[in-house]
Design a protein that fits this description.
Blueprint (H helix, E strand, L loop, with lengths): L10 E2 L13 E2 H10 L17 H14 L8 H6 L3 H18 L9 H49 L4 H40 L1 H26 L5 H64 L2
Antiparallel strand pairs: 1-2
Length: 303
């Protein structure tokens, strides 16, 4: 089945480039990311292409996608209880039945290998982003503990050798404290500003695609359920079942096509952003190591 694609992202001009045109504009979510993290414009994707679509199809996709792109604050317990009615309960029951019957092989279910591949990549980049952020915090905590121990050792040396080599012991302690209080603090501030904030902003961008993927899976269950019902229905109910099947199919395909269009773009930009963050972390860590070597060399020169 051929999948119709359309780029939903709002295109905005980069204020840092005066020669912006329709061919080198960047997606709206990337511009928001740049502005919130003081990040330079990303290079244009090599696979970007201009695609024209009928106005009616654009409106349909926009309506369906915006319907399911809700903020978490809208999904309160009161709203969920308000939406709980006979129709909703019937739909949820049908989804559970279809999920169970598909799991046990009692009924056929639609499989989209292309979407499964894109979803797998999206889940992988989301997981990597969260692990990267967690490991950064662990690394900073380990470095902090190391610098604190170095200061403690320097204090012990200063107390032990203050009568024999007071100048060297005091300078050793002073340099270690300077390393902890100034250099390491600058390192932490730089990582927070240039790496942590960027990754946190990127993780926030994953929330809406995750919600849309969840809705897409539910609409796929609705579509499979309607298809199963249509195959078993009697002649007098054929028209009603056909309408339900067409509606569920249209809703599912709109969400599916939208995600197939957006997930590869988000994945590619996420890889670029994480690559920049990783390089910035390595650069900052290298500078910290250089300062440590300089610190030690000053002490050794006086021995």
């Amino acid at each position: 089945m051929a999948l119709t694609k359309r780029t939903r992202f709002i295109l905005v001009q980069s204020t840092s480039n005066a020669n912006v045109n329709e061919d080198n504009m960047e997606p709206y979510h990337v511009s928001v990311f740049r502005r919130s993290t003081s990040m330079p414009p990303l290079p244009k994707l090599s696979s970007s292409k201009k695609i024209n679509f009928p106005q009616r199809q654009q409106q349909q996709q926009s309506i369906v996608v915006s319907k399911y792109q809700r903020h978490e604050k809208d999904e309160t317990l009161t709203n969920k209880f308000y939406k709980l009615n006979i129709h909703t309960m019937k739909k949820k029951s049908a989804r559970i039945s279809m999920r169970l019957s598909s799991a046990f092989g009692l009924s056929a279910h639609t499989i989209d290998e292309q979407f499964n591949f894109q979803e797998q990549r999206f889940r992988a980049i989301e997981k990597f982003s969260r692990l990267f952020l967690r490991n950064i915090y662990l690394c900073i905590e380990a470095l902090k503990e190391s610098f604190i121990i170095q200061v403690d050792v320097a204090e012990d040396f200063e107390e032990l050798l203050t009568d024999k080599i007071p100048d060297l012991a005091q300078q050793f302690l002073r340099l270690k404290r300077l390393l902890l209080e100034n250099t390491f603090t600058e390192f932490c501030n730089h990582i927070e500003l240039c790496v942590v904030q960027s990754i946190n902003t990127l993780i926030q961008l994953f929330i809406r695609p995750t919600n849309l993927i969840s809705k897409r899976h539910k609409k796929l269950l609705d579509y499979d359920s309607a298809q199963s019902t249509y195959e078993k229905v009697k002649d007098q109910q054929l028209k009603q079942a056909k309408q339900a099947l067409d509606l569920s199919k249209e809703t599912y395909e709109l969400l599916n096509n939208q995600l197939l269009e957006e997930l590869p773009i988000l994945y590619e930009y996420s890889c670029q952003i994480l690559s920049i963050c990783l390089k910035e972390f390595i650069r900052a860590h290298l500078y910290l190591i250089q300062q440590m070597r300089t610190n030690i060399q000053i002490v050794l020169n006086q021995v």
